[in-house]
Amino acid sequence: MNLSHKRAQNQLWLNGDIVSEEDAAVSPFDHGLLTGDGVFETLISYDGNKPFAFTRHFERLIKSARPFGLNVPEAELLSDACEAVLALNQASPARLRITITAGRAPLGSEKGTDSENVIVASSEVPEQPRHSKVITVPYARNEHGALVGLKTTSYGENVVALALAHSKGAREAIFPNVSGNLCEGSGSNIFIVSNGQLITPPLSSGCLPGVTRALALEICNRIGIHVNQIDFPMTDLTNVDSAFLTSTLRQIQPIESIDGISLKDVECNEQLKIKNEFTRLIQSEIDP
User: Fold this and answer.
1) Of 110, 136, 177, 181, whose Cβ has the fewest other Cβ atoms within 10 Å?
2) Nearest to 201 by CA among 180, 215, 220
3) Distance of CA 256 to the CA centre of its chain
């Protein structure tokens, strides 16, 4: 039974205190609410006690926060907050989210002077199918934009794109960039196999530097699978032989179809090898 929406389960960490969802409050003038002036990380705890790959997520959180001028609490404090929330909510596996917003500010783009709000919350991990259907969307990522490579709370594009995917019976939306090349999913990175080559978009494409993407690339380097980090025309995507998504919650997830066109090799050898090594990594290291 999914308990993620039962209020009795929702205890969270807010600015150093454990509070219930009902008692948690931030100002309606919070700049994160008003303008998306905030950053976040989604983590997973497989055992319900400690988050996986915390250090990588924490380092990316710092990088995302820096352009916004947001202060990030010390790693030990956030790690302790994650463990406290996990212990209270007792979900296993559990999804964790660390969110930092800019605090109270004027009703516009101008930043305020108040302290940030820092929230750590958890829920059960949503079930993931073995394979995913995806669609391409006409909304382009701007690989030259101010938010490239940052995991921010400005997620409007992703909300619209994912809703479109769901309306078409798909589970993920794949974005091009303004140059017309493959970029990323709404909440995932993508790898493809085309003409015998394993390819993933380079960070210069505008995609997020995903934690699972980085781990997959390290696995490939370790076991001798060559990955080409090169631009790939979006118009050729439906002609690829195989493809898979990577993300914290999806792990290494094969793509079944793109825009309704079934792929030739849903579970290719490369994907299976990476998936198996990733599973071993989860079992052997809590903070790789």
Assistant:
1) 110
2) 180
3) 20
